[in-house]
Amino acid sequence: MSLISPAVYREHDPGVTLGDDAIQRLIDANEDRMIRILGPHSRVGSPIVETFRWADSPFLHPVRSIGILSTAEESHDEGETWTTLVSDEYEVYDGGLTVHRLEASRWALRVRLTYLPATDLAERTVALLEMVGSDVGSGITSGGLVSQSIGSWSQAYATGEADRNAAKDRILARLRHGAITFA
């Protein structure tokens, strides 16, 4: 199910002349792009378990967390044996993006984090409205309109697909939340 509907989009752009089916196609295309780049929409709820290679640090992590529930590392010499660390063996800072190993000189090769994802649905909804708006106002749906002026007011629109894609990339970049670093 989409984050927004054509009716919700119309609340934010009441002058749009497209039909609901056309607006829904734009919503679907932009939402697919958002999920492809940022990952699935996150809702607070079930914990997520991810395994990271220490050598890959910093790991680009598109999902913010509201808390790390546990940290485990693969034992150095025992293969697939995992050792759960107690909370005084590591420190979390930078809003959950940096996990510092306190007791050992370095992390094991693989580290497993269990965390609760933070929801960013409100931010994603606004971003999706902006992305659809960039298509609606860019000439893709407005018969080639590239600018308009009324009195002293004027507005220029993106004129090509590269401009629209660059604008959408800037919108999505606001939702990227950093990298988990193992220090």
Number of domains: 2
Percent of residues in beta strands?
Answer: 25-35%
Going across the major beta sheet, what is the strand order? 1-7-3-4
Structural class by secondary-structure content: alpha+beta
Number of helices: 4
* Largest β-sheet summary: 4 strands, antiparallel
Give the total of beta strands: 10
Order of helices and strands: HHEEEEEEEHEEHE
- The rounded distance between the terminal residues' Cα atoms is 39 Å
Any descriptors?
alpha+beta, four-stranded mixed beta sheet, 10 strands, 27% strand, four-stranded antiparallel beta sheet, 183 residues
Write up this protein:
- The protein folds into two domains: 6-41 and 121-177, no CATH class; 48-117, no CATH class.
- Helices cover 30% and strands 27% of the residues.
- The chain has helices spanning 6-12, 20-38, 121-136, 161-173; strands at 48-53, 59-60, 65-74, 82-85, 90-93, 98-101, 110-117, 147-150, 153-156, 179-182.
- The strands form three sheets. A four-stranded antiparallel β-sheet has the order 1-7-3-4, with no helix packed on it. A four-stranded mixed β-sheet has the order 2-10-6-5, with no helix packed on it. Strands 8-9 form a two-stranded antiparallel ribbon.
- α2 crosses α3 and α3 (121-136) runs antiparallel to α4.
- The radius of gyration is 22 Å and the shape is elongated.
- The two termini are 39 Å apart.
